[in-house]
Design brief:
alpha+beta; Dna Ligase, domain 1; D-amino Acid Aminotransferase, Chain A, domain 1; 4 domains; six-stranded antiparallel β-sheet; five-stranded parallel β-sheet
Length: 426
């Protein structure tokens, strides 16, 4: 098959890395890709949110299957457009992508189908939102309704922080169209986990769980980011808890969407909060996580391509995926200043040496190739240094050994990825 992956981050590099191993994949393309992806796929200069350009390229190149990595093209209806053009694609249509594109839509669906989540209220009026905050107090969580590149959520520890977040979203308009409405919800105190399932509109197949680290600095301190690292398995997600997540959250979501005339095919990524052993849904993403995808692909023993095709074709029933028993851990290398403004264009050396560590793979998240062949940083989160090991502790040791072989003074990382699992002795 001719396969096109849409996107340019570490998630897409991991997907390309795994898809390239499939005997079914005759030719692999990525739009727009990055310097790392260019080593295993043909990168084409079409932006991930250029729906017309992506459909046009797929038609002209004879692409037979498109795997959509990021959320923006899904919300824009790329899969709908590809389907109309007779091109098979992995990912939900725009109606299903609203699970991620609108937090209010997701919360209302949870309310209608008794899916456990934090209590909430929706607002478009700043005065009403402020009054609600002052009435309910803190801590409380304030979220821009739409896509805000992972920056539209404030966990407010004080009423003043919550009021400032309301004004930032509804008054100053920091998030543009994504902030014309907001959701205020109760603060849940527990342990977070990432749970994934392939969905074909009716059947859902669970994948292994993971856990990521959102805070920028060691000890879970500093500003919230798109993710500074992840590991799998996540000890907090026991087999019994995984069954509860499937039965209480994933399956009711799939059947609820179907009842409302929405055929969801793709991957459901449930961001969970585990409170005293009970799972609550914090948010849905309608694509693989980043950096969670990197650890999932390293642990997946089965061929990924047939599984994605079966989801797109509506025939997941009976699929059994095989997973390596080894743990996997990903350390994100980011440019100094992230998640704020960063300087682009610094050179990254030592990539080959890092990749020589046993079990290690360096996934590129935001890199470009200079005219002289040098690898350059091109964004905030730049690399996902991922390694496997018999335990999370061994995977962590290998990942940081690979990190230490890199020569990139302008980069930084957390040095404690996986601490929860290691503290448990996993």
């Amino acid at each position: 098959m001719k396969v096109l992956v849409v996107g340019s981050g570490g998630r897409e590099h991991a997907l390309c890395w795994k898809l390239a191993q499939s005997p079914l994949c005759e030719a692999l393309f990525c739009a727009p890709g990055n310097a790392g992806i260019a080593q295993i796929a043909r990168c084409v200069p079409v932006a991930a949110d250029d729906v017309d350009g992506l459909v046009g390229f797929a038609e002209s190149e004879g692409i037979e299957f498109v795997v959509v990595g990021p959320e923006v093209p899904l919300v824009l209806g790329l899969v709908d457009r590809l389907t109309d053009a007779g091109i098979k694609a992995f990912g939900p249509g725009a109606a299903g992508a609203a699970l991620e594109g609108s937090k209010g839509f997701m919360k209302d669906l949870c309310a209608r189908y008794s899916i456990p989540t934090a209590t909430y209220a929706r607002f478009t009026d700043a005065a009403a939102a402020r009054a609600f905050v002052e009435d309910c107090g803190a801590p409380v969580v304030v979220k821009a309704d739409g896509l805000a590149a992972g920056k539209g959520v404030t966990v407010a520890r004080t009423v003043e922080e919550a009021l400032a977040a309301v004004d930032e979203i509804l008054v100053s308009g920091r998030f543009g169209a994504a902030g014309t409405e907001l959701v205020i919800e109760e603060f849940l105190d527990g342990e977070e986990a990432s749970f994934f399932a392939l969905v074909d509109g009716e059947t859902a197949i669970p994948l292994v769980a993971a856990q990521d680290h959102k805070a920028a600095y060691d000890g879970d301190t500093g500003p919230n980011t798109g993710g500074m690292g992840a590991y799998s398995p996540a000890p907090v997600v026991t087999p019994e808890l995984a069954d509860r997540v499937m039965n209480e959250i994933i399956l009711p979501t799939v059947s609820g969407l179907a009842a409302e005339g929405i055929l969801f095919r793709g991957v459901l990524f449930a961001g969970l909060m585990i409170v005293r052993g009970k799972p609550y849904l914090l948010e849905y993403n309608v694509r693989f996580g980043d950096p969670e995808c990197q650890v999932l692909m390293k642990r997946l023993a089965s061929d990924l391509l047939p599984a994605l095709l079966m989801a797109a074709d509506g025939c997941l029933a009976g699929l059994e995926l095989d997973w390596y028993d080894e743990a996997a851990l990903c350390v994100v290398m980011a440019a100094r200043g992230y998640p704020g403004d960063v300087r682009k264009g610094s050179e990254i050396k030592g990539l080959a040496a890092a990749g020589d560590v046993p079990g290690a793979t360096v996934f590129h998240a935001a890199t470009s190739r200079g005219a002289d062949g040098r690898t350059l940083a091109a964004g905030g989160r730049v690399l996902g240094v991922t390694a496997t090991g018999a335990t999370v502790a061994e995977a962590q040791r290998r990942a940081y050994e690979a990190v230490d072989r890199l020569d990139w003074p302008e980069g930084f990382c957390r040095r404690d990825i996986g601490w929860r699992a290691i503290a448990r002795g996993a």
